[in-house]
Design goal:
Elements lengths: L11 E3 L5 E3 L3 H22 L3 H21 L6 H7 L7 H18 L12 H25 L6 H19 L11
Antiparallel strand pairs: 1-2
Helix pairs in contact: 1-2, 1-5, 4-6, 5-6
Amino acid sequence: MSIATKTGDDGTTALLFGKRVPKTHPRIVTNGEIDELRAALGMCRAFTQQQTVRSSLLQIQKELIHFMGEIACENSQQKHYLEKYADQVIKPEMEDRLTQVIKEIESGVGSFDGWRHPGESPAEACFDTARTGCRRAERRLIALRESGAVVRDILIQYLNRLSDLLWLWGRNEPTIQSEPAE
């Protein structure tokens, strides 16, 4: 099957389980934000030199696929999705894992000590771009909930925790040392 199905040529796309909706539907827009976040995490993964961070980023990217699946279900299909993919949906232990990594980083280097300007290194710039994309996705997810969509609390908590972790990972990337003036 070709990726070019042409079924979206009329400005619609399918939610999970088949219902067609406009590409501007709040669920589709929210998933677009999550997809952009996944791509930004890929940039972080490509630029970081920290193997443990790289592995964690890949795990998060995989988790976000199931996050998107849940968002792509109408309210009436949520229970079916959660039952069908029970072993893969976002769970409190996933958010707990992110919180634990934050605690580990903060215990080693301390907590927030002031703002820096993004771009001290290519990897740090990627993490800051991913962090801001994560915050945008979080806002979009909250707006989806406010529009009447079923959105589990853990999804919002997961993105909130992830954005905090991305900020810390960015601060822990080596900076580029400038050349001394002659």
